[in-house]
Amino acid sequence: MKDAVLIASVGKRFGAVQALQEVNLSVGEGELFGFIGADGAGKTTLFRILVTLLLPDEGRAEVLGLDVVRSYRDIRKRIGYMPGKFSLYPDLSVEENLRFFASVFGTTVEKNYELIRDIYSQLEPFKTRRAGKLSGGMKQKLALSCALVHRPEVLFLDEPTTGVDAVSRKEFWQMLGRLREQGMTILVSTPYMDEAVLCDRIAFMQEGRMLALDTPTGITTLFRKPLFAIRARETWRLLCVLRVSPHAASVYAFGIALHYTDNRPSIRADELLAALQADGFTDVSVSVIQPGIEDTFIALMEEKQGAADE
Amino acid sequence: MSEPVIHTDKLTKRFGDFIAVDALSLTISGGEIFGFLGANGAGKTTAIRMLTGLLAPTSGKATVAGFDLYTGAEGVKRNIGYMSQRFSLYDDLTVRENIRFFAGIYGLTNQAIKEKSRQLLDSLKLVAVADTRLASLPLGWKQKLAFSVAILHEPKIVFLDEPTGGVDPVTRRRFWDMIYEASERGLTIFVTTHYMDEAEYCDSLCIMVDGKVAALDRPDAMKRHFGVESMNEVFIQLARPNQTE
Questions:
Q1: Which of A21, A202, A221, B37 is least enclosed by beta carbons within 10 angstroms?
Q2: pLDDT by residue (tens digit) across B190-221?
């Protein structure tokens, strides 16, 4: 597989802030690649370097085999970029925005309509509405249509689903899945851990560094301790009790259950259950579970934090 | 059960022909964590703007923190706290200046501001960075401070509008610790979120669809009613009722 994107030892500093440090990775052609991390992790800086809007301080990067510094003009014609902040013209209508972006890239909406039909058809009833007057979900669909209108070979989507409701997020990822089936390379960043499983491979980003890089299933093998899901009627009291337990290695709320690791290596679920029942918890259950992406991300964050504290 | 902190009866807001909020009826008791969910455009923001006294309702009744929304909007504003992820503190001010500014806005006296600032810096362990500009602090610290500042004037209720958007998974959970602690002390929490695991942490939930209340119940009762395991599934069923896969 050829590399669509290559990043080698890239670093970027803004004054005292090291926004990116020693980032290395490559994205294959046709891959759907996710950058997972919170605000301030460096995702946007990395994207801005790749789409040739920002120069790296260290290292080098290539998109479609072209250097991001020397060949920025050629790269720009062949990629699509949807920034995190809504960047279309609020005073132009839906249709005017789309035509404008098509004309900038020397093409027409009609020529590539097939590619965007799936997404744009949902906007067509509102095509005369000003972009500034659209709801959040519709703005996002229009921005994606504009990023696709010149049929780019690589698509960069910077936090396309931040602030978007759970249902619209699901629909957005279905659209990405269909674009991927057509062979487009997609790089997407997100703070939502549940979206990571929909990518071919993911990179965890935290404070400018890559914490891990693997397939969604592969990455969870970095979680090495037995993980327990504990449920009780009084979740909050359970959390408080477990936190002060001398045996607790980690306790985090995950919806209706707590995810717990113990610092005794061979502890069993039934032993934990008995201890909690002795503490007066009724209606409590303990089971061994497979760690998910979010469990793994938290564990890697803590590992790094622990190392930094020493 | 204590006095309701929010009570609305068929609260409605129209913009021309468009009904943004259609007959919203809610009762929220003291100390409750109330989750307010809905798809983008479902009317959440309009409802919050009415409940915080920023937007006059078209019809219906409502009292918030003991004040009527029509006749006592100023009283509402003085007796509630508000925090959103995007717009809360000033990055260019120091920690101390931010506290001072917001305390002043809420009408605390100079003496009270001094005292509150000292208490807050102590309890949040921010003494060492009191004169540091906010921009250079970690997000988790900023969030803690933003929440504390929003409740500095001891309101009965605090509105949290997507307080955890874009936050890392550990900071997000620490934020919910603060919510729980504040609720234990009797503060009423009105919170919106797009994270469905956070919906599970609420005492009761309201899901808005197209300006109307589509469901209003405790999370466990809601899941039972829809016969599903998670709030995510409830949300997906409700928010797009016509789409099945």
A1: A221
A2: 999 989 999 999 999 999 999 999 999 999 99
Are A241 and A113 in the same domain? Answer: no
Put simply, the answer to whether A298 touches B171 (Cβ < 8 Å) is: no
Residue B199's closest chain A neighbor by CA? Answer: A255
CA dihedral angle for residue B47, residue B50, residue B52, residue B54, rounded to 10 degrees: 130
- Pick out chain B residues at pLDDT < 70: 1-2, 86-87, 240-245
For residue A249, what are the domain limits? 224-290
CA distance to partner chain B, nearest, from residue A239 (Å) = 10
Q: Do B40 and A135 make contact, defined as CB atoms within 8 angstroms?
A: yes
| Residues of A with Cβ-Cβ distance to B235 under 8 angstroms | 165-167
A297–B165 CB contact, under 8 Å: no
Nearest to A183 by CA among A115, A119, A121: A115
Q: Is A52 in contact with A75 (CB distance < 8 Å)?
A: yes
* B182: nearest Cα among B28, B33, B65: B33
Q: Which residues of A touch B196 (CB under 8 A)?
A: 166, 255
Q: Which of B204, B97, B109, B102 is nearest to B147 (CA)?
A: B102
Contact A137 B39 (CB under 8 A): yes
**A203-243 pLDDT tens trace:** 999 999 999 999 999 999 999 999 999 998 888 889 999 99
A197 and A233, same domain (yes or no)? no
First to last CA, chain A: 42
Least confident of A100-109, A296-305, B95-104: A296-305
Taking an 8 Å cut-off on Cβ atoms, the answer to whether A253 and B197 are in contact is yes
3 state DSSP class of B207: strand
Q: Which residue type is seen at A206?
A: Q
Per the domain annotation, does A300 fall within a domain? no
Which structure tokens are listed for A37?
């991390």
